[in-house]
Amino acid sequence: MEPLTSRPRRTASAGDWCVRWADSADAPVRLFCLPHTGGGAALYRDWAGHLAPGADVLAVRLPGREKRFTETPYRRLDDLTGALADAVEPLLDRPYAWFGHSMGALIGYEMCRTLRARGVRPPGLLIASGRRAPHLPSRQPAVHAAPRRELVDHLRELNGTPAEVLDSAAALSALLPMVRADFAVSETYRWRPGPPLDCPVAVYGGRNDPLATPGELAGWQRHTAADAEVRLFDGGHFFLHEGARDQVLSALAAHLPAPSGALTGRQQ
Asked: 240, 230 in Cβ contact below 8 A?
């Protein structure tokens, strides 16, 4: 496997972690968007313009990608959420929500728990996309330490990485260390029992997603004391970046602020 170089971590600011793609800092609600395995902040560039000015979309850029390429990516979720919580606390000055797809949904859930433990302003909503409920074990074999060919074959099956990247030895050499770290974040995670979230949870899924069945998505109800609503879209695991993009954005816009500026947590 490709080794991760050992580099000392520097103290990262909110500006390192959060990218604002639209001029929406004065919006009444903030939406933190978390990437899937191997993804970056650029995934949410066009979302920002679509949801502004009603929502201030902050795309989370994790270490090891894009402008943070030289930083060592995290391999354990607890380490990642602790650092991210430090960065976003100054941005919790208004109602806010978390959106995460796949690995990002797991990060968003644990961010809600981490911030609650710190006693800071809680989110008004968690939107968990393309991810089975946190207490459910994976049905997939672990790949974060798999041989290169096996890992690349798995990425092809997921259909979320361009073929030209997977066919390029140079691109793979740059990409795979970060992808392995991201898979390790998810695959080494073990859910710890605790109180359910106080905020509602909106759960999005692809009708043909083999990684998160409707029953596995419905399991999120266990993790909130409020409402949990499951909505299915046409497509597979990456439905939100494929044909269902507009429907996903419409659902997000409906879930986010009511005229009062409060988060509703349900469709209007």
From this structure: no
Which DSSP state fits 231?
E
Whether a cis peptide bond, with omega within 30° of 0, leads into 162 is no
Cβ atoms of 203 and 109 closer than 8 Å: no
Active-site amino acid positions: 102
Beta strands at 201-206 and 125-129: parallel, antiparallel or unpaired: parallel
Alpha helix locations (H) across the chain?
Answer: 14-17, 45-51, 77-88, 103-118, 148-158, 163-166, 169-187, 214-218, 245-255
CA pair distance 209, 137, nearest whole angstrom: 16
- pLDDT tens per residue, range 118-161: 999 999 999 999 999 999 988 888 778 678 787 777 778 776 67
Do 251 and 234 contact (CB within 8 A), yes or no?
no
**Side-by-side strand order, sheet with 228-233:** 18-20, 55-60, 29-34, 96-101, 125-129, 201-206, 228-233
